[in-house]
Structure prediction request, 613 residues.
Amino acid sequence: MDDLRVPTGFLFSLLGIILLVHAVVNPAARAPMDANINVNLWCGLVLLVFGGILLWLSRRAKS
Amino acid sequence: MTISPIDYVILAIYFAFVLGIGWLAKQRISTSEDFLTSGHSVPVWITSLAFIAANLGAQEMIGMCASGAKYGLMTCQFYWLGAVPAMVFVGLFMMPFYYGSKARSVPEYLKLRFDEKTRGLNAITFAVMTIFSSGISMYALGLLFELVLGWSFTNSVLLSAAIVLIYTLLGGLTSAIYNEVVQFFLIILGFAPLSILAVERAGGWKGMSAHLQPVMLHTWKYLGHSSENPMGVEAFSMIFGLGFVLSFGYWCTNFLVIQRAMAAKTFEGARQTPLIAAFPKIFMPFVVIFPGIAAVALMSMSSGYSLPLKASGGYDYDQALTTLMSQFYPSGMLGIGLTALMASFMSGMAGNVTAFNTVFTYDLYQSYMRRNAPDSHYLAVGRVTTVLGVLLSVGTAYLATAFNNIMDFLQLVFGFVNGPLFATFLLGMFWKRTTGHGAFWGYLSGLTAAGLTLGLTVAEGKGGWIAPVHQFPSSMAQNFWIALIAWSACFFVTILISLATKPKPASELTNLVYGHTEMPPAANVPWFQRPVPLAVIVLALLVVMNVIFW
Prediction:
């Protein structure tokens, strides 16, 4: 395997997108104590950004 | 806790991914060393994260959160007094001998440094211990999933075991290590939001201080006497029992973690592995311990959250993590949280299985059963042992359902098995006069001393099967003292017998002992990546943490 960052980056981006879509399509999906924070939205964003960083790091290392 | 289809989808994606990594890692395997030791080929950032992840089993996650709820911030001592200094020590002082000796396992180092019998003793205790630990953690997870999610015990045990089996069988240690890195990221990204949400809801540090007893928010302040803190421990046994013996024993001699560092590409990388791993380790308490502390604060502020009760009365702290998840995570993120829990379980189990197959193949099979077979034979044995390891773990998990008390007892024993071994390594690596007889009988005396102390003391109704001579305020205190006594017994007996027996000639100690090991010239890396500066930075950070949260 060449670079673990690539598959891992795709995994976290995918998970992030799933959460984001879920947050937008089902805004009613809330936890009992979430204090009016859309947890899926924020966490999805973090996962997507993290996945993106891994992919970017791997591209940067190649060039 | 209700789980939605989307949570299952996330779990399924993760399972598919894990198997995919196994399949990718498979391409690199042609010899037994590729399969069992990764053939010294893994980049250092990967070995570093795997180094911590192999230890971050589900029991660690659930247990640390539970301890946070039960003992408060003092639980951080396991990280800031225990693990991190030990990781610095193993990177600076012990990796040169492990890596430099070209040993393929910790028992094999003992064979090179001492003799066959010391290796045999260590290999057998280690093999038995890994199987039981892996089975016990499988049992704990199966129970938890049954309790919280309503999954059947058999299904969750068999499914997770099958997945671990497939990916370790496909890609061996490389696949286990690569997956551990992903598991590490998942654990952080899956649990850190929970910690933030729970602490925020409890009113941050201020709110927690207002609702908790002061003893819950200090690491050192209440260690003057064992009666001052819920752990029932005083500073001396904390520093020497946990900090020195138990933590150094675990991180410096347990092949499960050492194996990750040994897989590094270079000598420099092997030394950097535990040092780089120490950085995230310092911050782990914020992810794993703080949610437990916040849980207790939430209970005392009538927020609607409460810990479930045990059938026997008292709070069931082990459910702190999962109940918090059900309160703070909506469907979707809940899937990520459960996946992280599953990931931590699989990384712990794969760690045990990959360490077991290496020790079994090289230190037991190749040494005592069939010595000069072609490598392809040992590769096959390694694969069969992987299957065997998983089957034995599953068997142990089922055994645990029937003999709960025995498993409790075994867990107690495993807690201090590595303690005396640390004395053996310390003397072996830094005192060239140490002999094989000294090491063997010293180690055995250490184990015997541990058993005797357990037999003569009682704490929380445990131990005292010979005669209850002394009562400890808590099993934690008992555990720390047993470790200390076992270590001392091993240390002194090893010295005495070594002085009375014939040492190995200096020519046979090259690369095995301090003073007889040539350090390769410093690799061409920037100063901040060299071991000593890294260690200094880690220790400085550690001091800061201890001062802030004293």
Summary: Residues 5-26+36-62 of chain A form one domain. Residues 23 and 41 of chain A are 5 Å apart (CA to CA). Chain A touches chain B at residues 1, 4, 7-8, 11-12, 14-15, 18-19, 22-23, 26, 29-35, 37, 39-40, 42-44, 46-47, 50 (CB under 8 Å).
